[in-house]
């Protein structure tokens, strides 16, 4: 059964494949024409077929494609793997019913991002990276856009947090503090990271906020775009003075020395 609600119920596999035959040919023909000679051969591709289940069950990306087959919505599942130190993408082109892939038109591995990119078409309806940081993302910051630097620093911060700190799923309760923490910061710290990018951290302390008694700090992490402006990476609240100290490094600036931009 492929899609009972749409009447796509077949008596046997032969009837099933006859129904989808022309569409399968469309995707297979496209793939054959665009596959570079330096990508996996058909024989090599067979070795990676076990990646298909993980791609469907735990994809990194799902793209909704309403143009490839007129009148039908196709979903492209993509997942990144490293197997025996060999990086690759696995791609599955599917028919989906009730948010589950029920028929696979085409699936294959590729070592080339430009090949995988051909299947990032239509609308991105699921992004694992953005999903993983959704509690911390606020409109206007780079974290919500899946920026690599923002995501990496945010995940590092989560690993440093104590178990009794403010839960990540409560971060949005403090998001209204972001602009004040930037424009009326108690402390501003500027330092270069391991890659040479200059980070500027804004810290503001709050005492006995409504519904949140005790000391709370709100920290805004930015990257310097030019000597006088910053791009907002992410922000978060914490009750842990030890965690706050980790953002006090480098040059301690005065607020009037910094021209601030609160959007990415």
Description:
The protein has 264 residues and is α+β, with helices and mostly antiparallel strands. The chain has two domains: 4-126, no CATH class; 133-257, no CATH class. The chain is built from eight helices and ten strands. The protein has a five-stranded antiparallel beta sheet. A five-stranded antiparallel beta sheet has the order 9-8-7-6-10. Residues 259-264 have low confidence and may be disordered.
Q: Notable features of this structure?
A:
elongated; disordered C terminus; alpha+beta; 34% strand; 2 domains; 264 residues; five-stranded antiparallel sheet
Label the overall shape: elongated
Strand content: 25-35%
Count of individual helical segments: 8
Q: Kindly state the number of beta strands.
A: 10
Using the CA coordinates, give the radius of gyration: 24 Å
Spatial ordering of strands, largest sheet: 4-3-2-1-5
Q: Give the uncertain stretches in residue-range form.
A: 259-264
What is the averaged pLDDT score?
Answer: 91
Total domain units: 2
- The separation of the N and C termini measures 46 Å
The H/E string reads HHHEEEEHEHHHEEEEHE
Q: Find the structural class using helix and strand composition.
A: alpha+beta
> Percent helix among the residues?
25-40%
Summarize the main sheet: 5 strands, antiparallel
Quick rundown:
With 264 residues, the chain is an alpha+beta fold. 26% of the residues lie in helices and 34% in strands. The chain folds into 2 domains: 4-126, no CATH class; 133-257, no CATH class.
